[in-house]
Amino acid sequence: MMIEPALTFTQMQSRLASIDKAALKPLRISILRNITLESIAIPLQYYAAQSGYDAQLTWGGFDTLLQDASNPELVNDKTDLILIYPHLFMTLPAINEKFCQLTPLQRQQEADFFLATALQVLTQLATTSPTASIIWHDFELPINPSYGQADTYLPHGQSTFIHHLNIQLHKLLETFNSAKYLSSERVMRSVGTEHFYDWRYWFAAKAPYSKETLIELAKQAMGLFHIQHQAAKKCLVLDCDNTLWGGVIGEDGLSGIQLSPHYPGNTFYAFQAAIVELYHRGVLIALCSKNNEEDVWQVFDQHLHMLLKKEHIAAAKINWQDKSTNLAEIADELNIGIDSLVFLDDSQFEVEQVCHQLPMLTAVWLDPKSRATYANKLNASTWFDTWRQTDEDKLRGQMLQTQKKRQAFKQQHSLSDYLQGLNMCLTVKEASEADIPRVAQQTQKTNQFNLTTLRYSEGQIRQFIEREEGFILTASLNDRFGEMGLVGSVLIRYISDTKAEIDTLLLSCRALGRQVEYAFLSEVIKICRAKGIKNITARRIQTDKNAQTADFYVKSGFVLTSSVEDPTTQEYECPEFNPLIAPSFICIINEDEPCNKN
Amino acid sequence: MQQKLVDILSQTLNVSPELITLASDSTNIESWDSLAHMNLIFAIEDSFDIRFTDEQLTNSMSVKQLLEIIS
Q1: Residue A88 belongs to some domain of the structure
Q2: Is residue A89 part of a domain?
Q3: b or e along A428-460 (b: 16 or more beta carbons within 10 Å of the residue's beta carbon)?
Q4: Is the model's pLDDT at B1 over the cut of 70?
Q5: Do A78 and A215 fall into the same domain?
Q6: Would you call A39 and B39 a contact, using CB atoms and an 8 Å cutoff?
Q7: Phi, psi of B31 (to 5 degrees)
Q8: Residue A417, number of CB atoms within 10 A of its CB
Q9: Where exactly are the structural domains of chain B?
Q10: Which of A8, A360, A363, A413 has its CA 20 to 30 A from that of B28?
């Protein structure tokens, strides 16, 4: 997949006309507003299609925010996304037009009135549309504020007032888990104040925004939604020569390559700094370079200004093989999908080649004529963005190092000696509030050992627990090499008091190949029984990636109940006396029971 | 020049190009309402690299008027 350059409004319109909507997933968006905003439909549908969605828009009335929030025809439990655009011009006209005439008390009353309404709208939406993501566009700071040029500097100026109001709005939104604000400041910065409004349409039709602003608004709204709902990339794969440093190590030698805190080497230095930052965000870093391996490692070991160190590198393919083979091997070695990789290379030929052979890969060409933009390009990318950083993210790079020790241990022993010798301990417990981000993240990111691959947002998980629709169990693993963190989640959905379905069962790839899944499921069954659930059913939904789960339930003693007609979904039932027992080499701790090693 | 305008009209108003004639205007093309008109202006401004004046904005709901503006 190559990244598409920015399009104009008209280009988006013609692009949309040629899109096969049947291939897209429907995305129901409701828009509440007090301005004319209908033209946003085109960029919104365009950016939605870019992320694989067919945006279906429902429009709220003009300036009927509160009524709309309680109108089930407009917002309901099928709504995926609610966009809210209360514009300052319409919402607080007094603040907009006669700020200088208002006393401080009157100004405060205006702000309080707005925040009270916002609270009402959000509270209402939490009941009418509990699972939708909410994106609320905050107030734009005035381009020409009430007290003119000096306004920004005045403690009681209009700019400061609106800025503080926005901060209060942001705080309010934070208390609603599925709500986020869309920063008008980011939008305005990107479009530029000159082109932000189209005053002709403001006066003619109460439509304040220029088409450039509409495009940016749609882009950022879909960007926010994307972070929440789609799996982030996991690994950054880098070429070496003319990517990590200037020049070719095999020809220019250690002292000849460009890499230093000074120009021109500082463009690469800055690029490496950005890469190391990503490492600390939990992104895996890999190398894929046509080179002599010892030459590259010599740079890592001996170059004074290498910010990127050997210990940051999760996998390296430095050889003369073609890059698509190497990239596939990197994905394999790291146990992630090829679509979780982002590959950067200065050779357009290589990028086109790998795109052709691995269409699911994100490959980006770094134009060697504009090296000064490399670091910025990486910093501006959204590939690795996640809503929240979990502890697992921060430690991922480090955990990979221990993973390598495990790998070495595995190679020195037979499989059964390895499993015995790991001294694994699996802690199973009901998910607490603190686990919600990680559980949601797991449902979004886990592809291989995931029985149903149902993706859930944090809001959905929280609601599931709060409404007692069922319960969630998590599994954390440690072994002789240390903690592996939270590796598995199970979501059990009640059907009746004595009947429940395993809605989701998943395990991180780093815990695979150790029979942990059987230990986890046996404990899950035990806990279900203890809760009085006699009848446990399960489902497996086939995807391109979860082939290894094909016979998991059968191997675990479950009985197939669905007919074989539909090969993509199978249904199972757990017999009353399931012979499944946890492997003897895994000790299971259920909350605070002591660990009895076998 | 005219073909480009017909293409934009057809795509924005979602009508087949054969139905667009010199006599077409907002009274005989049902989908040509004030909201569609906004998208139309956006598209024409993009494609012809022009900017409608305030007056042109309201006096452009027919093919004839549009042709005058873009020529």
Answers
A1: yes
A2: yes
A3: bbebeeebbbbbbbbbbbbbbbbbbbebbbbbb
A4: no
A5: yes
A6: yes
A7: -75, -5
A8: 12
A9: 2-70
A10: A8
Instruction: Say what the alpha-carbon torsion angle A400, A427, A425, A399 is, to the nearest 10 degrees.
Output: 10
Whether A100 and A57 share a structural domain: yes
Look-up of token digits 């988006």 = A12
Counting the structural domains of chain A, the total is 3
CA torsion through residues A556, A562, A565, A566, sign: negative
**What ipTM was assigned to the predicted interfaces of this complex?**
0.90
Subunit contact A10:B42, Cβ cutoff 8 A: yes
Tell me the residue range of the domain where A214 lies.
9-229
Q: For residue range B12-44, what is the model confidence (pLDDT) as tens digits? A: 999 999 999 999 999 999 999 989 999 999 999
Q: What is the C-alpha separation between A397 and A280, in angstroms, rounded?
A: 7
Residues A91 and A120 in one domain: yes
For A87: left if phi > 0, alpha if psi spans -120 to 50, otherwise beta; the answer is beta
In a domain, A283, yes or no: yes
Interfacial residues of A (vs B; Cβ cutoff 8 Å): 8-10, 13-14, 17, 36, 38-39, 42, 200-201, 203-205, 207, 211
With an 8 Å Cβ cutoff, are A8 and B46 in contact? yes
Which CATH number describes the domain made up of B2-70? 1.10.1200.10
Distance CA A342, CA A288 (A): 11
pLDDT, one tens digit per residue, over A43-98 is 999 999 988 899 999 999 998 999 999 999 999 999 999 999 999 999 999 999 99
- Rounded distance between C-alpha atoms, residue A118 and residue A172, angstroms: 8
- Could you identify the residue written with the tokens 């609106």? A162
Q: What sections of A41-183 are H helices per DSSP?
A: 41-50, 65-69, 88-91, 93-97, 104-128, 158-174
Q: Pick from A14, A39, A203: which is nearest to B38 by CB?
A: A39
Which residue, among A351, A348, A370, has the nearest Cα to A267 in the 3D structure? A370
Which of A8, A10, A36, A209 to mutate against chain B (most B CBs within 10 Å)?
A10
Are residues A212 and A114 both part of a single domain?
yes
> Residue A260 sits in a domain of what CATH number?
3.40.50.1000
